[in-house]
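Every protein is a chain of amino acids, and every chain bends into a shape of its own. The protein below has been through that process, and both of its lines are reproduced in full.
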Amino acid sequence: AQATFATIAQNGNKLNITDTAAMLAAYLRSNVAQATYATLIQDAAKVKYTDTAAMLAAYLRSNVAQATYATIAQNANKLNITDTAAMLAAYLRSNVAAATYQPLLTNPITGTGSNGYFSYWSGTNTESYVSPLYFNSSNSRIGYNTTSPTTEFDFRKSTTGTGGPTLSLAGGNDGNGNLGGKIAFREELYRHTEVASIACERPGSGNVAQLNVYVEGSSAMLIDNTRNIGIGTTTTTDKVNINGNLSLITAGNKIKIATGTNASVGTVTLSSGTITVNTTAVTSSSIIFLTAQETGTYTGMLRVTARVNNTSFTITSTAITDNCVVAYQIFN
């Protein structure tokens, strides 16, 4: 209808560029003198291609009889698509380097996408999209398996999977001891530098890994390849190594030490005022605390009378009749 076509013409920039070019090309070849047509093509550099619809609408309103105008509008979608290519080619030849426009004409890009999802090349000339990876334009956040990311990068496990998501950092030795990469934390408000990091490293030349937590450039905690831990130190000769004090800041908190075979704490019962305790926890320089318990007879004084390195130590009372329970604790 005339009213509909007039509206479309006035809003030409909203039209599909394929229909616009086809319509213009077909009309020009049929109704415009060759010289005029050539002039339009030659002057294409002065008109942005997106102005084609506006140019067509203005020309039609000024130069074409109403009946012809309506017929062109009604038949616009019936035009051959090759008209579009001809018009586009003319424009490209006038305004775009051949190396740029030729691939567009001979190797058109096809494929489908979905609003918000990242696209990728699924073939030489075909694009598709990644359904798990989503960009939320309202808050500039990226979601993986979610369209409502709550952080800058919200990484979630698929609902069909089990357990949590996995983020893998892989790499080789970079010459600085970095074996599998690191996660770095930067302060960008004032200092613009790295303030902390978690790094997977290769100590020395061995093919082993250790995990190091750095704060302000120094190691705060190290877990070596034997699962030993160093806190405030990179020395990990024991299971837990601490450079500094260990504070239990809440009343009632305890240090729990297991008892049993080869334990460093436990209880034994004197027999005729003496007992030998077999444990590999003792050394020749161990400090051993002894405390008589309430069970049994205790009239003398307790002391350690012998040590065998990594084997045993002997408790003796000054009263041969003592047969009480004695608690011991070994410190090395």
Observations:
- Residues 4-18, 41-50, 76-82 have pLDDT under 50 and may be disordered.
